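Dear support,

We are seeing what looks like truncated structure output for some complexes. This example has two components. We would appreciate it if you could run it in full and send us the complete token output so we can diff it against ours.
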Amino acid sequence: MKNILFIAALLCSFATKAQVTKVAIQASGLTCSMCSNAINKSLRSIDFVQNVDANIKTSTFEITFKPGTAVDFDKLKKKVEDAGFFVANFTATIHFDKVQLVNDGLVTVDGTTFHFLNIKDQVLDGNKSIQLIDKGYVTAKAYKANGKYTSMECYKTGLAAACCIKDGLKIGARVFQATI
Amino acid sequence: MRKIFLLVLVFCARYAAAQELFVFTEPASNMAAKSMGFRLNNSFMKNNAADKLNYYLNPEIMWGLSRKIMVHASAFFSNTNSKFTGNGGSLYLKYRVLSVDDIHNHFRLSAYGKYSFNNSAIQQPAIDLTGFNSGYEGGFVATQLINKVALSASTSFLHATDNSSEKFLLGDNNRNAMNYTLSIGKLILPKEYTNYNQTNLNLMLELLGQSNLQTGKNYLDIAPAAQLVFNSRMIVDLGYRYALIKNLERSSPQGIFVRLEYTIFNIY
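Here is the complete output from our reference environment:
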């Protein structure tokens, strides 16, 4: 019963249980302070967001989270888009507990699955920053360029395909594309 | 189309960033979803026939329905009949069709439509759905922001119906026109952004034209404007409209425009 509920939760909400220290988002398509304020207000309206530190000049937003809450990366991206702009860079600082990374492979951290591309095989231990490179998390140009590092279906959809089942994932589970 | 915009911008590029909210036209960008804006548009236009100023008041509400769609509702008031009267209203919708964004840079294309109803006497052959004529308008606007400057161009088709008080001046066969605009804007202050409370100053120059599709007559106005932005949510605009080409006649084409605008984010 617990497994069914867990899988259902995974499919319905992609909020991560991983310990996310902070997220830094650089937005594209704006220069003016009123535009930046629209994104600032949009991010602050999210219930799991503690604080947003905005740099108008560089269009970056450093976001910290309320303790004990699950962070939904897709919701952060959606709030930038709701303000009328797009995400150009999304860097999440996450606590890793001796996690082995394999290039073009999947890894699950506290129930959240990442597909790492264009990296050297390595072990992550402690607070480390990773960049999410899903569609909509980088510019269109960058997304197209990164496509050469993998042929896995999940890069196009952000969801686990049949090839991912061997890693214990259900088809359609959220797989975040990432690099370091 | 994008290459033409970039060529023009090469000649205009300066340091610092640019705002891209124009005074006399709407840019291709949308409001934030779930935000609302309130405008008081005031025009003080020299009446060509009499030695007086016509005053036009146009309160406007703007609503960001989603990231791609926004709607405006306006009411029209004026003192042209020696007393202050309500003349009608309009509804406007803008849909963002395309957005290609990069850091401090975007190209956007939107489609828009407008419907106006009006009860005032018709005193000019030019079609104006902002306070003068009943009718419809549909068009496209494209805006290029490139770090330092914002450039915007629009074109639309207008059709005048009869006002509730009287028929359209040019009769049944001359009710269609094309509007075309070209706008450029640049941020002057602040020199460097440090916080949301800095006052922004933008300077703009807009060209606003119309051609009647049946008579072939046209007008072309030049409209310089200054825009102040306070606390990244309140805007005060000051503009002046001057007619360069006048063979498509208007009763009061020249004058001063003053607008107060306030935006509330995350209304619901």
